[in-house]
Amino acid sequence: MKKIITWALAFVFALSFALPHGSAAAQSSALKLVVDGVEVTSYEQPFMSHDQVLIPVEDLFKEAGYKVSKDKSGKVNVTNTHLTVDFNAAVNSIKVNGKKADTEFPLTLKNAGNYVSGEFLATVEGFEVNVSEDKKTVNVTTNRVTDVPAFLEKMLAADLKSYSSKMTLDQKMETSSELGSMDMLMDIDMNVIQDPIAMYMLSKMTMNLEGEKTEDVSETYFTKDGYFQKTGDKWVKFDDAMTEGLLQASIAQADPLAQLGLMKKFTKGIHIFEYEDMYVMTQTLTNEEFGEIMEDALVLLTGILSPGATEDSIEGTVEGTEVTEATEVEAVEGEVTEESEGVEDIFADLAINIEEYYVVTTIDKKTLFPIATSGTTHMTMGVDEDLISIKQLITGTFSDYNAVKEIKIPADVIKNAISMEEYIKQLELEFEKAEALKK
């Protein structure tokens, strides 16, 4: 019995260290947490201590649209890239954008959760805190745009006729099989004109496959005159039929209403923060939303695979029948069914899972033009019995707004380019020669 009592006292003594210091343990009943009008319900709830309201950090910032991460030591990082706050309960410290916060009561630890005081939170840019008179509810108001669809419509309708951009894609792929891993770094310089659609792209790709490093530089012209791509020392012209489909897809992407129609589906994962001279837009994506995007991508892809499914071909398909909007749709579906089924089967077999998707875009407040973008994505997919993990870091900047006046394909490129069919034949001949030398 004495041994049991000793162990019980030791347990109570140890437990006392897990409770907040001072009178926080003798807290009043929990308060409701409401962020921008939405009640946040979870295990951790706000409570009063020393006449201060303490608010659970992770629940608060997740609901506020921030990216929240926590390491093994318990440190919590929240960010929307413009504002980053680091919480370290072990040393009773908070850092805002790398600078230690000057506060006497930064946070406390309760039930292994991190709590921040309402007094401190009110000093952080973009946050207001109010406790109800009956002290039963704490209302947190942020600087987020309330009507996201309306903002997107306004942003996408901005007078952006042309621009230049620089993008970097850092990708790491790992497999569970003997295929091992592959690192790829791609730098892209691009000029774009919206109407009529035109693009010039210069890309440099560095690839490291199991210690074997290769580099490739590619140029691409894409206008109403055709799609030309430099591969090695050869310029290749894509077939006109395929170019027509690619142009149609690009025009659809450049159309503000078409873009808005896509983004409106996923506004739940979009948060737009308003600051003095810019907006910061963050976006997350779930597996279900990714599936819907793939469905839309398949529509564009099948349109490219079957560019002949135009109104003329539709009329031929339903000759002798009154052509209505419904029959046109049915005819198009009939045209692309065979091609799309194979593509759909491929995506279905991949078993893609979105582990992380977080993209941030900063937007000029006056013009509503994009300034920069960055993103972190991580997805896994199964191929046969192999598991493939792909992680990407994306960064990019935009410039030369409405200053790109013309994109013209050089005459020597048009003159010397070979057709896609001829290029494939040359590849086949080179492959046959290589096989013959092996023998």
Furnish the topology, listing elements before pairings.
Layout (H helix, E strand, L loop, with lengths): L1 H17 L13 E4 L2 E3 L6 E3 L2 E5 H7 L3 E4 L5 E4 L4 E5 L4 E4 L2 E2 L6 E4 L2 E5 H4 L5 E5 L5 E6 L5 H9 L5 E14 L5 E13 L4 E12 L2 E12 L2 E6 L2 E4 L2 H15 L1 H8 L6 E5 L3 E7 L2 H19 L5 H7 L7 H26 L2 E12 L5 E14 L2 E14 L11 H6 L1 E2 H19 L1
Parallel strand pairs: 1-13, 19-25
Antiparallel strand pairs: 1-2, 3-4, 4-11, 5-6, 6-7, 7-8, 8-9, 10-11, 12-13, 14-15, 14-24, 15-16, 16-17, 17-18, 18-19, 20-21, 21-22, 22-23, 23-24
Helix pairs in contact: 4-6, 5-7, 7-9
How many domains, as an integer?
2
The percentage of residues in β strands lies in 35-45%
CATH topology of the largest domain: outer membrane lipoprotein receptor (LolB), chain A
| Poorly predicted segments | 1-28, 253-257, 307-337
Output the CATH class name of the largest domain: Mainly Beta
Alpha carbon gyration radius: 28 Å
Helix content: 25-40%
Instruction: State the separation between the terminal residues, measured CA to CA.
Output: 86 Å
Count of DSSP helices? 11
Q: What is the mean predicted local confidence, pLDDT? A: 78
Total number of strands: 25
Overall outline:
elongated
Q: Structural class of the secondary elements?
A: alpha+beta
Report on the biggest sheet.
12 strands, mixed
Query: What is the correct CATH architecture of the largest domain?
Result: Clam
Biggest β-sheet: strands ordered side by side in the sheet: 20-21-22-23-24-14-15-16-17-18-19-25
